[in-house]
Amino acid sequence: MDLLKPRTVPLSEETILWFEFLLKPSLLAKHLNKANPDPSPTDLITQFLAKAPEGQTHPPDLTAPDPDGAHRSDGLKYTKKQLALKILALKVAAFMRWDLDKLERTLSVSLQIQLLADLCSITAGKMVALPSSLLQDPALIGTDGSRHSFNFALTLYHRWVLRAQVLRAAVIKNFKSNHGPAVPDLTTFVLRDESSIPALEPITQLSIDYLNQVLMEPQTFRVLTYESFVPLDSNSEHTQQRFDAAIAIKPCELRAQLHYDLCQYYLYVQKYELARQNVLLCKDNYAQWQREEIGRTGLPPAYCTVSAEVLQGYLLACGVTGEPDGLLQRLHESILNHYSDIVMILKEDNLRKEIPMTQRKLLELNIEGYNAIGSTDGNPIEQKELELAVVALNIIRYVMDGENILSCNVALQKYKNQQPKLIESLFQYADEQYEQFSLEERGLLKRYFYKIITLYGGELGPAFEAYVQSYSKVVSLQELKDFRAQHTQPETQLGGVALQSDWVIPETKNPRLEVGQLERQLISCTSANAVRKLLVKIAGTNPSKPLFTINPSWTIPYPLEQVLIPLQRGFLQDFAYILIGKARELTARKEYATAITLLTVLKNETQRPELAGNPLIAKLGKMVSWEGLLVQIQQVLDEWPRKPVDQAQLVRNCKQCLNAAAGGGNELMPHAKLLDHCAALLLNLNEWNALLVPVDKRFPGIELCTAITQAFLDIEKFKGTKKTNREAWEMILPMFLNPPGSRQRQLPPDGPLVLLIGKLREPLVISILLSLLAKLHNILRDEANAEMNAEYMFLWPSNVNNTSIYNVKLVIEALNLLLNQALRYYPNNIPWLKLKGDVEFVANNFEAAMRYYVTALISGTEYCTVHLQRPLVDDFLIRRMVKCSTNLGCFVQAAVLCQFFDETDYGLAFKSISEKSASYSDAMDSYYSCIWDPTLLEFIVSFIGQLELNANNNDEIKREAAAVRKNRFLRSLAKQYMC
């Protein structure tokens, strides 16, 4: 009820009319200080501004006398009534401590702009229209204005400019996703009314600059208070606001709020480094503000509305966990910084054992490759010493982990030319940390060093004793002498293979064995540089066949094979074939980064100057880049919902790929699999316009994506009104035809629909396709008891000609396939859970149907923490659940569910309760406490003594009793069907 609008009927004594707040200003403060004032503060602002809507965008012409009495104050072109109401609205906003969170949640954008414009106008002493980029000059202040107050108004306005864009983006995203419960804090933000938000974009940078300037200002920041605004008196012709009543706040409180707002905006525009800088500054200033101010005065904060919980969320979003970086993270950072501090990290890991040995081995191989290509970034001697240090530290970790010592000895054989230096490094690093190792680890190290003494002590001679003397903690000189005394030379002299310490191929110079070893290394290696070296070595043995035939598992796409085979036999042909084959193997193992690296190296290889001008090489380079794009798309789909690092570039590459296919002619065209993946990714990333391109009929996957895009655009264009979309319908309908002479078959796994379903991730796209399949099922099945409900079913036609030629079982198969895929990524999507329940219900899988129905209700009530209400539950769903319970023999359960109808179905409930006790499959006693309907209770006499369920109770008590019992019953169903 509008309490501020005068009425002709008698009003109660508690009703306050708007002019009474002018006559008695104390009434406003008294009203606002109530525990739950009705109307609320924001309702009051709405009412005050609604009484004076003009003056913000179209100031009245006051050259002629105004019947209400004009008020002029150096450019403030408000009537007295307008000014009085605007001051009251600003007093309420000041009472709310200018909390933009509350104002944005409850006021429309037009009223927010009007309130901010009134604040800027009154503090400046002249009219100000918003949005405007002229607000950057605070020197434009009238005689009745105040510099510090106008600065406060501008700061609030520029904060709002950034926040309004973030809020609008959140609303659009919530609207487009169209799944799950609506965001309650955004309900007042109506998209069709907010045409003013895009007008803020040109002045966004000015707002950022202004806020950064405020952060640097040395002057004290003053906040306007409730007393700063003086209401008009009935006898006054002129008013002077008490801007001196503003209070100064601590600089840390101001900085905490401004850095918080800037962080929000930078996250919205995906400038994550700037967001991280601002959230860290917000955190520091917030902590300082808490230490200096909170708890001292006992008063609420004057300006800052940042909460610790929300700030922690933004810290996590920006990657600031508050925990020290782990060793694995430090390892990755060290690699990016050219292996700085790598030795210290590995030494620390030998104690903490956080880095997996696979990562440490990859590091060793990377450094080896880095040195092998002859990098000029540093001193070659220092680089070689770094490589040996990493190898030595890895050997120590292998030994203490109890791993196969053969792998350690392979390293000693591998670096045979640098063996003295490697063994010295082993002694040095083991000695430095020896006392920090456990007793078990010390024992493992001693046994390993005794093995080294046995194998290499004689070869190194005095040098070995020098190592022992310098690093005596692991093995002392006395231990060395005792060990040698116990291990005298055997009488039988062995040589050749007998002296090999592990399964390293002996130096027999057998060419076939050597080639076999090289081929095994070529098959197992994952480094492009290693492949290059091995190909050169194997090519030197004059092989009779192309080297890419070594491993039959290396397969490449047919279009690439058509380009590679005509190439002259040689290094590039083998190198390209093997790298592409290895990339496909790695992609199948989901090692996407390594696969992309191999393809990038190959792409660079095709761009060497000596290969320029060869059309086959140019074609190969283009196709390799497309193959890399396919791997990137597969990685994005596999890691969904994590977004790619460079999403914008990936989208551009997908668009270029589709445009290449649309161009046609004799141009090089991407293969169909890549085009389907590009179209699916653009569909998932809401790049709708990119899919509105001419579609070649040879690519049904792209055609299907385009048709679904058109269906989405129809939803946006017609705002939910009935608009039949036929493009996707007519494409998908033939896929469910019965082949001649057969009534049973399965959807082809390589068909465009099945392939697209496997790549769909975006909720709105999935919902559109689900609605199509559900509508088609309802038409083909044509049974009222077998209907399915889904969103957007209004999009599709209501009938199909000659339904007998279609196979409804294939539709069910497609529905199940898509629903299983969708719920894998969004397990709590309520409409999809209900639809999955419908699919199971139609198949007479009543227990499975109940499980999905109950899961939907549990998710919608946030695990029974909020009351169950519509539209989450409706009569259609309840009737299905009753049917499921009855078919499962749970008759008391069905009777309890009958209470969930809008009007309790007593006939069905009484019938369920009257079933023979022997046929009950549910524990009837456990459900008695879930009954709230008095009539049903009278039928079950055992509950008539529950006082809160008395039929004479008022409606509020009855509603609360029903809500409590509904949640109790839901928990019971969840235990039965979900656990």
Automatic annotation (TrEMBL):
InterPro entries for the chain: INTS8, TPR_INTS8
Pfam families from the UniProt entry: TPR_INTS8
Subcellular location: Chromosome; Nucleus
Main location: nucleus
Single GO BP term: snRNA 3'-end processing
Keywords: Chromosome, Nucleus
Keyword Transmembrane: no
Nucleus is among the record's keywords: yes
The INTS8 TPR repeats domain, residue ranges: 513-977
Superkingdom per UniProt: Eukaryota
One GO cellular component term: integrator complex
Stretches for region Disordered: 54-73
Protein family: Belongs to the Integrator subunit 8 family.
Listed name of the protein: INTS8 TPR repeats domain-containing protein
